[in-house]
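Inputs:
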Amino acid sequence: MVHNPKLVAVLHNPVAIAESIQQRKRWEQIFILLGWFSLLVALLTLVVLVADLLIRGWPLLNPNFLPKFLSSPPSSDPEEAGILTAWVGSLLVILVTIVVAVPLGIGAGIYLEEYAPKNWLLDFIEINITNLAGVPSIIYGLLALGFFVYILNWGESILTAGCTLALLILPVVIVTTRESLRAIPIGIREGAYSVGASRWQTIFDHVLPYSMGGILTGIIVGVSRALGETAPLVTIGALTFITFLPDAPIKAEPPFISFNWLWSPFTVLPIQMFNWVSRPQEAFQINSAAAGVVLLVLTLLVNSIAIYLRYRFRKSIKF
Amino acid sequence: MAEGSSSIKTNLPLVLPSRTARIWRERIIASVLFLAAISSVLITLVIIYILFSETVIFFEKVIELDQMSLWQALLEFFTGTDWSPLIEPLGIGILPLLSGTLTTCFVALFVAVPLGTIAAIYLSEFAPAKVREVLKPILEILAGIPTVVYGYFALLVITPVLQKIILGVQQFLFPGREEWDYFQLPGFNMLGAGISVGLMVLPYICSLVEDALQAVPLELREGSYAMGATRIQTALSVLIPAAVSGIVAAYILGFSRAVGETMIVAVAAGLQPKFTFNPLEGAATTTAFIVSVSLGDLPHGSLEYQSIFAAGIMLFLATLFMNVLGYFLSRRYREVY
Amino acid sequence: MVKPTEGAVVTQQEPLKKLAEVRDLNFYYGHNHALKNINMPIYEKKVTALIGPSGCGKTTLLRCFNRMHDLYPGNRYEGQILLGADQPRNLLEMDPIEVRMQIGMVFQKPNPFPKSIYENIVYGLRVRGIKDKAILDEVMERSLRNAALWDEVKDRLKEPGTSLSGGQQQRLCIARALATDPKIILFDEPTSALDPIATVNIENLIVELKDQVTILIVTHNMQQAIRVSQFTAFMYLGELVEFNDTMSIFTKPVEQKTADYVSGRFG
């Protein structure tokens, strides 16, 4: 028990206590306002950004004009210029990206989580992947320029672009694959082993299917990032004036499928937008905004699928 | 006996798959998966090889063209304030690119660190569950917007607003002059680009700081509340010290991302290298320089071609350093708790 | 049959004084009715133990006293916990922060803050905005002495609280609770994370502290209840089955459930 009167006064004086509480609650209110302000800045950014794009791009986005905008190649006349080659290019590049990144990423994830012995090599690969995830995307562009374009001599092609973006999103796919595999309880593995399944059978028949939701989320997050990525593709020299579509992948005559499109030059949506926004003529800002809206709709659509999936799988997968 | 055995006859194959075949199949699969895992290391090695080999060629050429020793060239590279490797006389001082990068990054962090931290504390400690459920996906959406769109935002929204604000402040402070007598913010400036980069990394820093706060064990929170502390007192004097390594890691990773950001600065900060720390001017960052060179015709093997690798290696090493630092810091806070 | 020790004998010379009283307390976690019509007194300068099998609600009851349940949504109290003899106030209607400023708590796991030993002790004063160095120093030394930790740490007050051993950390947490001179200190199984020697130290400390402060302790160790407490409440399935002086609970329980529990037939 405290007897020092000065101390009793500070510790047990009801008036002092009430004042202290009131004052501290005022600080708490101020902080809550600050918190709201910070989040409002983020929110406002989103709203202003979308509103500005929509308003500026409306002349090309209104229902009368949109089909033409989507179906015309770029042109030096802003009113004629559209994003046909850009969105086709984006789709084809993303197709290559998925084909390369998904097996590689899932395979690496499975190895690291299910096979790798816990030793220095695993540690090293882990640090390496974390670091790759943080390497600026433009460095991947330099890698692609030096390696794919000149050493492998693939040129400024869809194949180069797709592989570049695949390397870029590889860490995302690996990390989410590992996290999803880790979330599968050990009992399922032991159950499969106990009926005589081999390691690969256990993984392929049980572990992998059960963790597919999480892995899918990771792939989609990666794809949405690849869709919006510009810098590495600019670096490999993709900022060219492309008015024609790549060779069609499906042909009328045998063998029906052609891979010539892999080698054709291309442009993608974000590059088209960058091209227009950096032009001095103000008229192209409209095209830029409209391309921005299409790009935003596309990435947000893909992203929201991932967010939805993640919240659905939250219960079983801890991120 | 014979009757009994026939009645429980099953369809199991008489010959089981060969043991050796199974073992070999497992081995092959494991090897293929190992190759996939090791590919990430290969990527890093190829990055390092490409960057180094082209940079070495860059220096060899510079030495030959300018008739200087390797040491002089390296000294010039790290201390020179003129970066113009494309025009004679060659300027190979990297400092203008670094000054541009640092200036935009500091503007970005000036925006993102306080806002991101406050937002993270609010989301982690104050926001009701329903508010969190609405706000977190919005922040994720914000983090998913392509950076070229943020570049558009910086050039066509933020900069015009800044121009009006700066003009307005001057007119208020020194009234009565003609409009053109006042300082005009150039259309390409590091302030607008930096703010936009800051808005881009804000959700990233916010979510990393929130993760660090969430990793603080419940006992510490309850211990603080049990002493009669308010939520803000708990957050500031218990949670932040407890999560400090995770929070610092968040800032470092945010900084690293700002350093590597390309499209925003390429669109909005200007493409001309300039040794300045004044955010009201336009200047190229390291990344913007690489873009500006790539935009033109880039003959393979020319000095221009190699110069972007020399700039790239600086970028790579700087972000590598920060990422590794951030990795170990964030691993430490996970180990402590 | 367990024999009560010296510490449990209620000295009849001094009259008992009620410091607090629980009246018709009901508590709900969402729809889960966790505490049912609890009625019990808390006597001043005595140690009251809450015992019972796990899940019986003893920790839930303890955490009602400093309104810990208010930190999480969906919890609801009904009834009263009256604090003070002359002008009793209902804890459950006061501001939780005000309640916690008067009622300290020591947790299961030692939880020193990531700060120096000194700052850990004066935290309760700092949150009230007390900055006077003389007061802080005085309180710090008094609390550490009361928690029997002063001699061990007086030369290393600037070191982090987490650098101490487990038992020392728990005494640090007790000193931290003592610093603000609370009316009651709540102990939530304070020795469950400690080794036997540290446990003995903490138990001795609790016995000493009861001359200064009222103590409420949750324990699943019946021997501990006998060693440190003067009163014991036996709880079962959210109800208070029996409340009496500790010796009576363990030697001549009235309820069959209590008898079964203290003789080790379940729990």
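Strands of chain C lie at 18-29, 32-43, 47-51, 75-83, 89-90, 103-106, 184-188, 214-218, 231-236, 239-245. Flag for discussion at group meeting.
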